[in-house]
Amino acid sequence: YLSYAVANREPARTDFVESSTVSRPRSEQLHNIEAGYRISYKKWKLNSTVYYMHYEDQLILTGQLNDVGAYTRMNVDKSYRLGFEIDGAYQIVKSFSLNANLALSRNKIVSFDEYIDNYDNYDSEGNMIQDIIHHNNSDIAFSPSIIGGIGFTYIPVRNFSIGWFTKYVGRQYLDNSQSNDRMLSAYSTSSINLSYTLYNVFFKEIQFGVLVNNVFNKRYANNGYTWGFVSGGERVIENFVFAQAGTN
C-alpha cells in the first residue's frame, strides 16, 4: 500500500495567551508519506512500513521567554521523521509461537535557536538577556531512534498459556538540543503473563491471569524534563526524571 496525507494543527490556547502580537505562533502542517507491505502464510506473517513525515512550522520549546517571563513554544521552519517499522509472528509448533517488532527512525529539527537564561547578563533596564545557541540537525525531544521487542507464547496444556515479552527503547533526549547532559538512557524491560481460562463453568468464559512487569527489577526512567541557566559564569543543568516501578 501507498498513502499520502496532510494534517494541520492549530497552536494550543496557551501558545496564544503566552505570546504577544509580534510573536503569535503559526499553525503546524504535516505531510506524511507511507509505503508498506504485508504478507501472511499459514504459520507466519510480516508487516513492514517505511514513512517520511515532513513538518512545517512545528511548535517546540526553545527556552525563549516572552515579555512577562513565561517560556513559549516557537515555530521551527523544517523538521522531519524518517523511519522503518517491521513486525511479525511465527508459529513454530501448535503450542509455541514467536513475535517481534522493530522500529528504526531519524527524527530531526533542521535548524533552531536555543535560549538559555543568563543571570549574569542584564540590560540597562534590568531585563535579563538570554544566551542563544544555534543547533543544526538535532534530535527531536523524546524520539528514540530505535525501539524493538521480542517475545513468545507457549501453551503447555489446554486453556493455559505463558507469555513473555522483552522491550528495548533506545536513548532519547529531554529537549531538542541533543545534549548527552540532558538524555534518558536506553533501557530494556521484560514481562511475563500467565493465563488460565475456564469455559462454560457458571459463565461462558472465566479467565484467571497473573502479569509480572519488569521481571528483572530494572531501574529506569521513561520520561522527564530539564531546566538550565547560566550563573557565576557556569552553565547549570537540572534534570528531573520519572522513575518507573521495579518488579510489580
> Based on CA inertia axes, which overall geometry fits?
elongated
Task: Provide the structure class.
Answer: mainly beta
Kindly provide the radius of gyration, computed on alpha-carbon positions and rounded to a whole number of angstroms. 24 Å
Number of helices: 1
Helix share bin: under 10%
Instruction: Summarize the main sheet.
Output: 12 strands, mixed
Description:
By secondary structure, the chain is mainly beta. It is 2% helix and 69% strand. The chain has one helix and 14 strands, in the order βαβββββββββββββ. The strands form two sheets. Strands 1, 2, 3, 4, 5, 6, 7, 8, 11, 12, 13 and 14 form a twelve-stranded mixed beta sheet that branches. Strands 9-10 form a two-stranded antiparallel ribbon. Strand 7 (146-157) and strand 8 (160-169) form a beta hairpin.
How would the blueprint of this fold be written?
Elements: E1 2-9, H1 13-17, E2 28-40, E3 44-65, E4 71-93, E5 96-118, E6 131-139, E7 146-157, E8 160-169, E9 172-173, E10 183-184, E11 187-201, E12 203-212, E13 221-231, E14 234-243
Parallel strand pairs: 5-13
Antiparallel strand pairs: 1-2, 2-3, 3-4, 4-5, 5-6, 5-7, 7-8, 8-11, 9-10, 11-12, 13-14
